[in-house]
Design goal:
The chain has 461 residues and is of the alpha/beta class. The protein has 3 domains: 9-146 and 266-328, FAD/NAD(P)-binding domain, CATH 3.50.50; 154-263, FAD/NAD(P)-binding domain, CATH 3.50.50.60; 342-445, 2-Layer Sandwich (Enolase-like, domain 1). It is built from 13 helices and 21 strands. The protein has helices at residues 18-29, 44-49, 51-70, 84-109, 160-163, 180-191, 211-223, 313-328, 357-363, 377-381, 410-422, 427-431, 456-460, and strands at residues 9-14, 34-38, 112-115, 119-122, 125-128, 131-140, 144-146, 172-176, 195-199, 227-229, 234-240, 243-248, 253-256, 258-261, 265-267, 300-302, 342-344, 350-354, 366-373, 387-394, 400-406. Strands 1, 2, 3, 4, 5, 6 and 16 form a 7-stranded mixed β-sheet that branches. A 5-stranded antiparallel β-sheet has the order 17-18-21-20-19, sandwiched between helices. The protein has a 4-stranded parallel β-sheet with strand order 10-9-8-14. The chain starts with 8 loop residues before the first strand and ends with a helix. The chain binds NADPH dihydro-nicotinamide-adenine-dinucleotide phosphate. The site of NADPH dihydro-nicotinamide-adenine-dinucleotide phosphate has 22 residues, from helix 6 and strand 17.
Amino acid sequence: MTTGHRYDYDLITLGAGSGGVRASRLAAKYGGRVAVIEASRPGGTCVMRGCVPKKLLVYGAHFANHFEDALGFGWHVSGATHDWGAMIAAKNKELDRLEGIYGRILRDAGANLIAGRGVIADPHTVEVNGKRLTAEKILVAVGGWPAIPDFPGKEHVITSNEALDLPERPKRIVIVGGGYIAVEFAGIFRGLGSEVTLVLRSGQLLRGFDQDVRATLADEIEKQGIKIRRDCVVHSIEKTPKGYSVAFDKSEEMIADGVLYATGRTPNTTTIGLKEAGVKLDKKGAVVVDEWNRSSVESIFAVGDVTDRVNLTPVAINEGRVFAETFFNKTPMTLDYTNIASAVFSQPPVSVVGLTEEQARKDYKVRLFITRFKPMKHTLSGRDERTMMKLVVDKATDRVLGCHMVGEDAPEIIQGLAVALKAGATKAQFDATVGIHPTAAEEFVTMRDPVPEKDPAAAEM
Ligand code: NDP
């Protein structure tokens, strides 16, 4: 194609999602000749099928609580009804706008956006739309896809992809899984009025989160009417005239209008020529990369969910950034994966940064601070909702190792605290910070008394 160059491009990126777009547009800005190949819509999982449409639906679902709470403040909001189709149409219009922006960002940076499915033919060649394109480097940023276990009737289930575009809202929905996606959709559908049953194969939701977060969120969503079936496995699903008949392992069954599986995601690595090119994949099929995002093949790199490290959009974006800085701006950089804050947009939301109590106890002697309270708003609204905040502190250095919150605005609050943790803030510095009154956030700087140690032996340490 281009004369005077050994390859057609300096970089070919597979996937125009969060990681791929950031890497490509920076590489192009720094003078690289870049092509980005996208099989679906520019924007990727986060913008088209994940964070963005999900959060818009979370906002939509919140109004139900706002209307109820308004009464306590003297408002009479009667006759409020919800039009699912109108919400989905508005959401889709916004996604169309964002898709345009993502395409434009790439074009403005000088990258060539190619619609099609790219397959790696060799370490420097990608095939797309029947053509072979060569590049010095190939960046794999193709993300992941919902994983559904095998069982009789799996063809009847939907995933988060379809849940965001259903023609109508299921009145009774079974949601299988207890991770981010399951609890977020449980909140959306419950808020909009559906009967929601959350099916957990284990005893508690949100594996990996702090035990107090997990227990608090479970209590709160149960109060909102979400039914949780614990230690329960779906055996089979049948379509019947009354709805989907969901059979559980203990020979129980229930009828639902929809069954949503949110049982994890798998990297999209099976059909893009990675194995054939010699790229090492792990047990889950994720591309194994080093700290420079380089795979086992020298010219092939990967960022984002396809590497199954920390599967969050801002992480993918930062992986894309450090890749571009390192290889296209002569500024070698790696990403620091410690103290990455995250949020679950459940109702109420969860947000956390740093270590859980359980993780911290493995390496530190800890002091714990926990507060639980009724948010001020609910003194008048009468809603039975409590906020929980927890600090995990290293006894030896006084450094705050973890901040955890379940309650309104948790993600907005924890983002600021993430800066404090990144800066290595101590509990004394939290205490020396004057609060903003009246807020929920001020509780994070006014927790004075540690939780008494349950184990007397531990208390002496
Ligand atoms: P998660 O890995 O978070 O959770 C998977 C859930 O499914 C777990 O509760 C797990 O149970 C359960 N599960 C797994 N296999 C089965 C099975 N065969 N039968 C029944 N239950 C099963 O996955 P998600 O799909 O919720 O989300 C995928 C990823 O997307 C997340 O890890 C996160 O990184 C990202 N994400 C982030 C969001 C955010 O930041 N707000 C929002 C949405 C997604 P068990 O606990 O027993 O293992």
